[in-house]
Amino acid sequence: MYRAASRARATTLPLATPLIETRLNGLVPQRQGKVRDIFDCGEALVMVATDRISAFDYVLGSGIPDKGKVLTQLSSFWFERTTGIVANHFLSMDVREYPEHLRQHGDVLTGRSMLVRKTTPVPIECVARGYLSGSGWKEYQVKGSVCGVSLPPGLRESEQLPAPIFTPATKADSGHDINISEDEAGHIVGRDLMQRLRALTLALYDHGASHAAANGIILADTKFEFGLTADKSILLIDEVMTPDSSRYWPKDQYAPGRPQPSFDKQYVRDYLELIHWNKQPPVPSLPEHVVIGTRDKYIEAFHRLTGKVLL
Asked: pTM for this one?
């Protein structure tokens, strides 16, 4: 697979300098994740998606230009499409509607940030799987199940499941999220809330998978995050069905029984395996053709799913 990366097609957009850190004339984010920088604006938050990229639990020394714009604008697309399923925290991507002290930074924030409502995040990841891949495939080979969900024997890697399944995980600020059973998740957040989140997760996945399939893409699995408002209403938060939070495969290249080409960090992971990085600091930087190949995949997924031009 990595050889294909070295022959990645020429990028369709000018290569911008990646945004690695959000520094706005002395303003610094109150919180930082692997990708997002969060500015607390009192009653709301401004979430900025940088171009940082992580692999094997570490943020790498190189960024992927425009990656943060893809994550933000694709999430905005899905937020708008899924309001009939569940309300969300999205308020605006128009910097002119941001708090006054941030409006002057439109050159940095436009296209890669959003103003969102504050919520109390539910402390689990809500994962929907329609195909057997990744950690699910590894567990299935040993146990014949995924997160306590029994599956038919004889399934192959990347095979479509008889029906999508809900497989929650614990959140981790660093390191891997840990897959847990629905019962374990119920002990963490309460059984009634867990059942509501399960139904919402599968409904969102069904909507996303149907739309993706109509555009020649398989949504193999994806994870959602939810938050609670003061009156305990559930909101969809964070990012939604992006290449960072989902496994997207080109439909015309799909063949069960092996790993699939994908619209995510495939070039990056293949390169890191090729150089035999020990997955410990110091973190490596990426050569230009791996950066371009990864960027092209993110942008292609955005174009095919939204039909829009990246801002």
From this structure: 0.93
